[in-house]
Structures are given as structure tokens and as C-alpha cells.
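Model it.
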Amino acid sequence: MTTKRQFLATAALTTLGALASLGTAHAQTALDDVMKAKTIKIAVPTDFPPYGFVGTDLAPQGLDVDTARLIATKLGVKVELVPVTSANRIPYLQTRKADLVISTLGKNAEREKVIDFTAAYSPFFQAVFAPKSLTVTSFADLAGKSIGVTRGAIEDQELTKLAPPTADVKRFEDNNATVSAFVSGQTQLIATGASVAGNMMARNPQLGAEYKLLLKDSPNFIGVAKGEDPLRLKVNEIIIAAKKSGEIDALAKKWLGRPAGTLPE
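Modeled.
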């Protein structure tokens, strides 16, 4: 099953060609403009927990939101959070409605034609989750245990490769059905994406669910308008320093239940 991230990303790419020429219109001025205004506009998601969502106080929160605030603090400027969807996040960057996009943005050849990317700042992954009370430290520990997964999803493909033959893999037709099965106790574990798991754990804290095993990692990058090298390089400095200081790992641990680990630069 195609994930929300994959589906919306594919739809968004259809609009990028027409906007490509806009990316270089103000080349090399973004960093100067940000420092002069003492404000940086950063596009973030507000409907994709745990990366970005609206809390009970109606304020944006999540890993991407915290990363945006971290970068603004390191630059010594205020942050203006700009809510975006998967479909409009790149056009917002190209049309100067945002200086940066921090919104679970994966890097691929098509996107690299129209925007630039910083070093990776966080993981986006598929994993196995289970209650804290269930000891699972390796794929061998899945033997004899029931695991819910969405049929045909990336996590289904990876789990099929890694789970022992005696694991009881129960496949469901969509993410909602997979989550419902786990929440109701029909399965002992669940294999799913970080965003689905984050939302599930936030809505069902009584489960005591936590990250157990990594299935596949697909890191997130920060998007920068094409040709804005001074801003891109400055953000890279901030990310690399935050990795060394442990701040990047701390944010991943807070929102994803695991450190960021080694990320591409």
C-alpha cells in the first residue's frame, strides 16, 4: 500500500517543472535577507505526527517544529512557522513564502532538479513497535509472536525478509485496520512507519508502546531554494554541530523513541 508520504510526494512533483525557474530568481540573497529581517520563515507540517502537528494548546509541535526552532535559535533570529502540506511545501520554497522547508522531505533526483538540500537532520523509518513489557531485542525474538502489518507496504516487504519463519505475520488492508488490531490486542506487535506509530502512541498512551526493531531508514532533509548556497551551508553547519552536541539525537529520542544515529551529510 502506498503511504501518505509517497502518494502526496508523487502528486506534488507534477507541479514542480513550471516553478523550477523561480528557484534562482533571488539566488544567494536568502541568508542576508533572513539576517536583515531577523526572522526566518520555515515551512513545517501540522498534520503529520510526530513530525508536525497541532497540540491541545493549538500550537504547532513535533520533531520538525523543534528542528525549525533550533535552527532559528542558532542563527539568532525569530522563527515564523509556515504550515504546509506535502503538495505545496516545495512551491512555497520556490515562491519565497518560506526560506526553508522542514517537513519530512526525502531527497530524490526529481526534487534535486528544482531545489537544494542540506545534510539530513532526522530519520524517517519503518519499524516494529510493541509494549515496553514485551522483550524484543532482535528479529529472532519475533518467533512465535503475532505482528500486524499493512499488506504490501514497505514495512510488509521488509518484515517478510527479516522475520523468522515461525513469526505470525497478520496482514491488514490499510494502516487504520493494522493499528486497530494492535490497539485492541489482536496482535502483540505492529510493524509500521514512524508517523503512523507516533500518532498511535500519542492517542493510546495506555499501550505503553515503544520502538523495538528497525526495518528501514529513509532520512529527512531540509529543503533550500535552488542556488541559495550561503543559507544551505550555514544550515549545514548548524546541523553538523547539533549532531556532535547530541541535540539531533535528543530530538529524535523525544519524538521517535530512538536516537537519530548516523545520518548522511
